[in-house]
Design brief:
Helix content is 35%, strand content 24%. By secondary structure, it is α/β, with parallel strands linked by helices. Strand 2, helix 2 and strand 3 form a beta-alpha-beta unit.
């Protein structure tokens, strides 16, 4: 069994949400990020491993 986790982070377009997304990605986990502005969430995406959910 894998120890990888999936993190669901809201508000990942700026500030604290962006910083919260970086730590689990650095640890090898996956992140699902959401935000009000899809362009800002995509711009804040530090890797291609972070799927983005747009509303």
């Amino acid at each position: 069994m894998s120890n990888n986790k999936v993190w669901f982070i809201t508000g990942a377009g700026r500030g604290l949400g962006v910083e919260l997304a970086k730590a689990p990605l650095a640890a090898g986990h996956s992140v699902v990020a959401t935000g009000r502005n899809p362009a800002k969430v995509a711009a804040a995406n530090p890797t291609d491993r972070m799927p983005l959910i747009y509303r």
